[in-house]
């Protein structure tokens, strides 16, 4: 088990707060710090797990702060949420999968949906001049209901 410096511990805590798995963190630690750690060692820095129950308060606070920051960030900060990034990835996959007709068609359809804007980010329904929708509540007698119902059914 590698002995970790504070910078490495902070990196692990922040990575776990961003929903990386312990295995992904092991790979990231190896790439960034050139040290070997085990997934079990990494898991000890996650206060949401049993293994992280004895984590110091400093790292618990850091974890919760990093997770809140990660969740509250605007969607455009997430690489894969941007259309151009998605198109680049799908394009690379399309080139690799050209021999597989079914996959190539699916990827082509996905690319077309992104390019043509079929994925609307937000739809907002409002009333007149952007105000709230008006709702009207009325009381109808049973006879009035049955009469209105018959009129509607007669139209069809």
From TrEMBL:
Family matches, as InterPro entries: DUF2280 (IPR018738)
> Which Pfam families did the record assign?
DUF2280 (PF10045)
What protein am I looking at? DUF2280 domain-containing protein
């Amino acid at each position: 088990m590698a002995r970790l410096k504070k910078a490495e511990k902070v990196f692990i805590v922040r990575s776990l707060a961003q929903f990386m798995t312990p295995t992904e963190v092991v790979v990231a630690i190896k790439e960034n710090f050139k040290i070997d750690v085990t997934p079990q060692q990494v898991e000890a820095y996650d206060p949401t797990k049993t293994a992280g129950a004895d984590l110091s308060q400093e790292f618990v606070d850091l974890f919760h702060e990093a997770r809140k920051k990660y969740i509250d960030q605007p969607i455009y900060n997430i690489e894969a949420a941007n259309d151009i990034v998605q198109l680049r990835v799908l394009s690379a996959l399309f080139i690799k999968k050209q021999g597989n007709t079914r996959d190539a068609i699916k990827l082509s359809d996905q690319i077309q949906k992104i390019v043509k804007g079929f994925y609307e980010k937000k739809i907002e329904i409002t009333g007149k001049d952007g105000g709230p929708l008006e709702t009207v509540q009325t009381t109808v007698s049973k006879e009035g209901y049955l009469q209105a119902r018959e009129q509607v059914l007669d139209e069809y």
